[in-house]
Specification:
Shape: elongated
Number of helices: 5
Number of strands: 0
Order of helices and strands: HHHHH
Number of domains: 1
Mean pLDDT: 89
Largest sheet: none
C-alpha cells in the first residue's frame, strides 16, 4: 500500500479517499468540501461525485428506455468496489474521462 500521507480531517488520506466513495456523491461532496490539504482525497472525492451522478443519470435513462438497468447496476457496483479498494490502497486510479475531469477540478 502506498503512503499517501494524512488528511486535514485527522485520518490517513487513503482511508478518507476510500470513505469518499461509500455513499456516492454525498460522501464525495462532504470530503471534497471539508478536505483542505490532500489532493489525493480531493481527487477521489470528486471522482466519486462525478461517477455516482453519471451512474444515476445512466440508470434513469436505461430504465426509461428499458435497456438492461440490471447490467448497469452490476457494472456500477463492480466499479464502485474497485474505486474503494484502489483509493484505500493508495493508488491514484483514474476512471476513463471521469478521472481526468476529477483531477482537473481537485487540483484547482
Amino acid at each position: 500500500m502506498a503512503d499517501v500521507g494524512k488528511s486535514s480531517l485527522g485520518m490517513d488520506a487513503n482511508v478518507a479517499a476510500a470513505l469518499s466513495y461509500v455513499l456516492g456523491w454525498i460522501t464525495g461532496l462532504i470530503f471534497f468540501v471539508t478536505e483542505k490539504d490532500s489532493k489525493y482525497v480531493k481527487f477521489h472525492a470528486m471522482q466519486s461525485i462525478i461517477f455516482s451522478l453519471s451512474w444515476t443519470i445512466l440508470s434513469i435513462l436505461l430504465v426509461i428506455t428499458v435497456i438492461g438497468p440490471a447490467l448497469l447496476g452490476i457494472a456500477g457496483l463492480i466499479i464502485w468496489i474497485i474505486c474503494i479498494i484502489k483509493a484505500y490502497s493508495g493508488e491514484m486510479f483514474k476512471l476513463p474521462v471521469i478521472g481526468d475531469t476529477a483531477e482537473k477540478i481537485a487540483n484547482k
